[in-house]
Specification:
The chain is built from seven helices and 13 strands. The protein is of the alpha/beta class. Strands 4-5-1-2-3-6-7-8 form an eight-stranded mixed β-sheet. It has a five-stranded mixed β-sheet with strand order 9-10-11-12-13, covered by helices on one side. The longest helix is centred in the first third of the chain and has 21 residues. The termini are far apart. The N terminus is likely disordered.
């Protein structure tokens, strides 16, 4: 068949279309691993997280990192509590004694079980720079970082302690490539991993929309909200950086959940967390 013939051109177009469809079928997020990145306990939930409610109620919080396998590489969301806490089974006091932190299985060990080295993580984002979300950040010096500009400047500026940050936990990220964001950002340009600006808990707090191929869209909360009842009541923790922004961010996420028919995965909600499979199992 001559390459200039109409039949050849039709064949070539059909072949190209088939290839494009095959590529599209394999593009985007392939799977998501929920990693156990610590837990914490408080003796009084009202002391910070639900002011005016749950006075004297003890509570346990979950804490996770999320490893996403995209067709273009590995993406990590949050870095959890420091693996060093695992050597202290009695836990470590934090937040001026409001919390006790525990780590039963290190992030490093969970990645090793998945045969993923920290240097395999090509891209990463942190919801914010509080210690329970950046505890192992120094492992990921090869990742391209996606951070809100305000959060980056606070974390790496002259007075990170002023914002409740502990720079020793993430100091090695100073030399990473970084995209300083000023709002939402589509990481891969295909709508499958989208950073959502949700300020309030900290000035540059962000959440994450992930489109799973079978389960559908989910939004990872970061600390936009801490547990289901606070979400239902739209309560704002007393130590949030900005109450008005916190309320606006919750309203925005509620709208996005409705628009995208998405699930909200509340990072610190232990009851919800117990219903999600943990690595090495995954969701797709």
């Amino acid at each position: 068949m001559p390459i200039s013939s109409p039949r050849f051109l039709v064949f070539a177009v059909c072949l190209l279309a088939a290839q494009c469809l095959t590529s599209a079928a394999h593009a985007g997020v392939e799977r998501l691993y929920v990693l156990n990145c610590g837990s914490s306990k408080t003796k009084d939930l009202s002391a910070n997280w639900s002011p005016g409610a749950n006075v004297g109620v003890g509570w346990e919080f979950s804490n996770h990192c999320y490893l996403i396998k995209h067709s273009r590489g590995w993406f990590l969301w949050d870095a959890g509590m420091s693996d060093e806490i695992a050597s202290k089974p009695e836990g470590v006091a934090a937040a001026n004694g409001l919390l006790t932190l525990f780590v039963t299985k290190t992030l490093a060990a969970q990645l090793e079980e998945l045969e993923v080295a920290p240097t395999d993580i090509q891209a990463a984002a942190l919801s914010h720079f509080h210690a329970d979300h950046v505890g192992n950040a120094n492992l990921f010096t090869k990742a391209h970082l996606y951070l809100q500009a305000g959060e980056y400047e606070a974390a790496f500026g002259a007075e990170p302690q002023k914002f409740g940050f502990q720079p020793a936990l993430y100091e090695k990220l100073r030399s990473n490539e970084v995209s300083k964001l000023s709002g939402d950002h589509d990481v891969y340009g295909d709508g499958s991993v989208v950073i959502l600006a949700t300020p309030g808990h900290t000035a540059g707090h962000q959440s994450l929309l992930v489109r799973l191929p079978k389960r559908g869209p989910v939004i990872l909360s970061g600390d936009m909200v801490h547990f289901a009842d606070n979400w239902a009541q739209r309560r704002v923790p007393s130590r949030n950086a900005d109450k008005e922004q916190s309320t606006q961010s919750m309203a925005r996420i509620a709208d996005l959940l409705a628009t995208h028919k998405a699930e909200l995965w509340i990072n610190h909600d232990k009851r919800q967390s117990e219903r999600l499979p943990k690595a090495p199992a995954y969701l797709d």
